[in-house]
Amino acid sequence: MAAQSTFQVDKRDVSFVLYEFLKADAELKKLPPFSGMSKNDFDMVVNEAAKMAVNTVAPVNAVCDRSPVQFDKGKVTTPAELKAAYKAYCEGGWLGLTGPSDFGGQDLPGVIGLATHEFFMGACCAFTMYGGLTAAASRLVFHYGTGEMKKTYLEKMYSGQWQGTMCLTEAGAGSAVGDLKTTAKKSGDHYLISGQKIFISAGEHDMCENFVHLVLARIEGAPKGMKGVSLFLVPKYLVKGDGSVGAYNDVQCVGIEHKMGIKGSATCTLSFGEEGKCQGFLIGEEHRGIQYMFLMMNEARIGVGIQGTGIAAAAYLEALRYANERIQGTDIEQFKNVDAPRVPIAKHPDVRRMLWTQKAYVEGCRALLYQTALWADMAQFHPDEDERNKAMGMLELMTPICKAYCTDTGFKVTELAIQTFGGYGYCQEYPVEQYMRDIKIASIYEGTNGIQAMDLLGRKVSMKGGMYLMTFLNDLNIFCDQHAGHPVLGNFVKNLTETKDKLAGVTMHFGGLGMSGDQLYPIYHAAPYLAFFGDVVIGWLLLRMAVVAQEKLDRLCADNCCTDDDTKRKLCADNSEAKFYDGKVRAAKFFISQLMPRVLGYEQAMMSGDRSGLDVAP
Ligand SMILES: Cc1cc2nc3c(=O)[nH]c(=O)nc-3n(C[C@H](O)[C@H](O)[C@H](O)COP(=O)(O)OP(=O)(O)OC[C@H]3O[C@@H](n4cnc5c(N)ncnc54)[C@H](O)[C@@H]3O)c2cc1C
User: Fold this and answer.
1) Assigned domain for 377 exists
2) CA–CA gap between residue 204 and residue 71 (Å, rounded)
3) Averaged pLDDT in 10-residue chunks for the chain of 618 residues
4) Which of 168, 177, 199, 231 to mutate to test the pocket of ligand 1 (most atoms within 8 A of CB)?
5) Residue 535 sits in which domain range?
6) Which has the closest alpha carbon to 76: 278, 251, 265?
7) Is residue 583 in a domain?
8) I need a labelling partner for 28 at 20 to 30 A (CA). Which of 40, 241, 359, 375 fits?
9) In a domain, 107, yes or no
10) Looking at ligand 1, which residue's alpha carbon is closest to its atom 31?
11) How many domains in the chain?
């Protein structure tokens, strides 16, 4: 049995974002597949997920880290505690939460699935990847596979009996997927696959009876590059007519990686067709493999974003608890008094700065990810075409920000959580050092954050003639105009307006350079541009949430007859709801005044015209 963990979830903020801010229950009611579902249904799922994450998944986190997966003669062994927890997870139906009920899923909306995923990712990222990979592969088979494929594979995948994987990367084809060398040769009703894939998560282990690898390969004679790549379903064991596992299909695990983090997740090198007998089954049409993968990419990238925010949220809550319990030093205002009482470190201004930074990033990113997942649901199911198109535009624009900004700031949050702990944060006695190691991979896989930045600046910003960007800026303008005179938040809204105008200015400047033939200079700045864009988005979301929270706080103050600052402060100290809403308002103010100004430095760098780092490598 794994030891109990200290993992916590922030159900109050999750509930605020879902219902008080996004009004997800009402929005989902408008979408036919979810019109029969209510807030009660969603709450039940979210609450059960929180319990499962805290009681079953979180206790295996340290086990995965201290007893990593082992490789021996083609077999990968996972720790017994991980196996037991995974069995409970699969039996509980968590793997197929948003999958189709025709194949054993539960038909829930993506935004609710994402909320549960935040808990599981925070509880144990390495664990959650096994199910996440299978769910992602299942979605691909569901959308593009033949009827026969769906019938043969999906139920076994959604139940967790069979593991799904995504096999893109090769030694010479990482970010440049189109350079892959794995081949496929037509042979009757199937193709013979030959090649080696590296870094394949969940590529081999002992928690399932079969593997369903989705493999990108080039059919003999196909064009070079992305356009010549096709997608194949390659089971480790062929499936018999009655659906049971049959003959070995010449897919071998030849090794696993020894990594900085997520050590419970098996990262495998897979060899396909060493004996020339590996059968692959074409998914969709020949040469359209990359397109199919790309169509699933928005979801997968939001999934990696929630990995960043889930782990960051867990780290922040650990740091917050520690800061309130750890006694060290005296109040700064009494530093000359040797008899002054010793105080919790949360009293110290620098620790408060670290805690507010963590809170603002976590809550801002949570709002961004949930909002984007809701847009994804709307883009797919809204009955009104205009609404579908608008949601699709926001989804396209925000996806690289969800992936890169939430994982970069998530890493920063875990680093600040360690700093909040001081020396203990660096030691294994507390979980924050593991969180920092586990989260790092999220900025690398599923398209590195550098590639996300190029996607935002090089593709998304100019998509549909810049229409998606215009829609976003228009929404932002409406918000800024509406709330410029807000009695509490007005000055912060004005700050956001100015920063948003600077973002628009940089975008125009880069657009002009691009049109005059200079693509390199803008692309050189793609990463800071994404960070700039991300700060504007997060500032906007935090302020929108603060407007809602301030209204609720005012109501609570009125109900409790708090008319002056002292009685209001006392209410915020004594009443947990008042404290919560006050925290939302403060997080927004803190972000706008303390964190967002860093983009002014980015703007200066981007407008400088300096190319000293661009023309040659050091
Ligand atoms: C733990 C782990 C799990 C993984 N799981 C999977 C999996 O399940 N399936 C799978 O297929 N793959 C998986 N990967 C692979 C992962 O997706 C790749 O590592 C990633 O795509 C980067 O490729 P690379 O490692 O070859 O780095 P490279 O592509 O060599 O990149 C190195 C650096 O160069 C930059 N760079 C590269 N090309 C460009 C460019 N054109 N412009 C600007 N910058 C560029 C990158 O941003 C990066 O900073 C996993 C990797 C790890 C470590």
Assistant:
1) no
2) 9
3) 82 98 98 97 98 98 97 97 98 96 97 98 98 96 96 97 97 96 97 98 98 97 95 98 96 98 98 98 96 86 98 98 96 91 96 98 98 97 98 97 98 98 97 98 97 97 95 97 98 98 97 96 98 98 98 96 93 96 98 97 97 95
4) 199
5) 450-609
6) 265
7) yes
8) 359
9) no
10) 175
11) 1
